[in-house]
Amino acid sequence: xADLKGRDFLKLLDYTGEEILYLVDLAxxxxxxxxxxxxxxMHEGKNIALIFEKTSTRxxxxxxxxxxxxxxxxxxxxxxxxxIGKKESIADTAxxxxxxxxxxxxxxxxQEIVEELAKYSKVPVWNGLTNEFHPTxxxxxxxxxxxxxGRIKGIRLTFFGDCRYNMANSWMVAGAKTGxxxxxxxxxxxxxxxxxxxxxxxxxxxxxxxxTLTEDAFAASKxxxxxxxxxxxSMGEPEKAWAERIDDMKPYQVRKELMDLGAENAVFMHCxxxxxxxxxxVGREVFEKFxxxxxxxxxxxxxxxxxxxxxxxxxxxxxxxxxxxATL
Length: 328
Prior knowledge:
328 residues; five-stranded parallel sheet; alpha/beta; four-stranded parallel sheet; 45% helix; 9 strands
């Protein structure tokens, strides 16, 4: 049993493979307790603060439900509810909140913000998402993979799309730490930073995993156990960026012809939200402007029998609960 009490959860590079797998196992146990109706209010009377500079359905609900299940009070601070970095410095915000709360979650922009929060906080700080890393999503994904395949080590996962930011970065780290074979598939201009690739490859050499970068979507699909993608363009980016990104990303849309090249029991995963139809305002706008009814994944794959996206989404709550249970 790993002793993680008092630890921050900022990025998986800070954790050993054994500690990551311990959190996955703990989440599995807590999930079973919740399904069986077994109370697990192990942090009764404690309080946590959730700072959201970027809003999110899954992350907010996961932290709130997990906090309540553990017996804690939860305060949600939306983008208008916190003066972090505006009227109050990050250091001062950390010290004020740490004097009132037992843990602090941050979801927003640069990794340096959550790192500075942790530096000045006397209570654990958890990363709900930054531009560079998304560690709570990784734990949910690893739990989902374990539930489906019965193992994590040796699984082959291919990430399709823009590989420069938090999801591809996090998959390289998570895969390297746990002995997975991670392939990032995109145009070379969307490859991740070379230094992080080098670091993850060095880690993977010790765990039996591997990190591969390729522009060939068909080659990347062969034998893959997990097909993974994320949205192509972040909200708020100018229309010019949308047009260029959509054109560059078309070959990397996850579609049936790629999935048919994967392992016999291959599954599709996505951190959500996904633009797989015109059921969203963004989806309709993209169709009107660019003529694409589906973006990073086709509706056929997203709604198909090999899609496990909603099992994966539920697991956000169980794994976030494990992080808080272990570190408080």
